[in-house]
Amino acid sequence: MFLVTGGTGTLGRHVVPLLRETGAEVRVLTRQTIPGHLTGDLETGLGLDEALDGVGTVLHLAGTAKNDDRKATHLVRAASRAGRPHMVYVSVVGCERIPVTGAVDRAMFGYFARKRAAEVVIENSGLPWTTLRATQFHDLAWKVAEAAAKLPVMPALAGVRFQPVDTAEVARHLVRLALGGPAGMRPDLAGPRVYPMAELFRLWLHATGRRRAVLPVRAAGGAYRAVRDGAVLPGPEADLGTVTWEDFLKTRA
Ligand SMILES: NC(=O)c1ccc[n+]([C@@H]2O[C@H](COP(=O)([O-])OP(=O)(O)OC[C@H]3O[C@@H](n4cnc5c(N)ncnc54)[C@H](OP(=O)(O)O)[C@@H]3O)[C@@H](O)[C@H]2O)c1
Fold first, then answer.
1. Which domains does the chain have, with CATH numbers?
2. How far is CA 237 from CA 26, 130, 233, in A?
3. Site to substitute for ligand 1 among 3, 59, 92, 167, most atoms within 8 A of C-beta
């Protein structure tokens, strides 16, 4: 039995059907009340013992901007009380390289520190584990561009580059890892091309037929400097997907 946390999310909606296609029995955890899903909350621990009962592999995809370490802590505690399943976790490229110290760092890049803290919870859990760090999903880049376009000018972090990846490719990768044995920290997974943030926005504007000026902005703090210096780009051993931002824009727009 596989348990998917975050099975209702952007990534999870790709992962769950792929897993089911392999003939696997899949249980989905959500905070919502959805027929055929199990209701629980990783922030409080509610419903987790029931969710983990009889589970051999957990795909832990649930995540928010805050507290992913707290969610991981509740999950590994429940997993340790249950059958000690294989924990497959999705994290984010660069989370171990972005120093989050001051208030500006926390407000803008606190997510990365919490992802690293969640990785550590899983690594130190004593459970068998596999972690995949992915770069930003195309779906996220789209959401960020859409939100920025609500402003009169689109602010883009100066000097910052991203290598976004297609969500479906991340899902396929994770399903392969979940069907295999515990493999520890896997090579990063990224898309095929690097784009300055301003270029991501310009391509989005072109694809959606909108007109906006893109304004480069600088931020304070060590986390921004690390990101500007390439901390969110994958390492040299990374696995690369094939779907570019332009390919994604063609299908999505
Ligand atoms: N988006 C990216 O670019 C990106 C890049 C690298 C890594 N990741 C990681 O990939 C994972 C999936 O991201 P996503 O974009 O698919 O996220 P998403 O669309 O925002 O979905 C978040 C999921 O987390 C679940 N969730 C949130 N809080 C929960 C809680 N307290 N208890 C139980 N479930 C909870 C939600 O379920 P309900 O609302 O149904 O409860 C939902 O299914 C996250 O861990 C994220 O950090 C994302």
1. 2-252 (3.40.50.720)
2. 31, 17, 12
3. 92
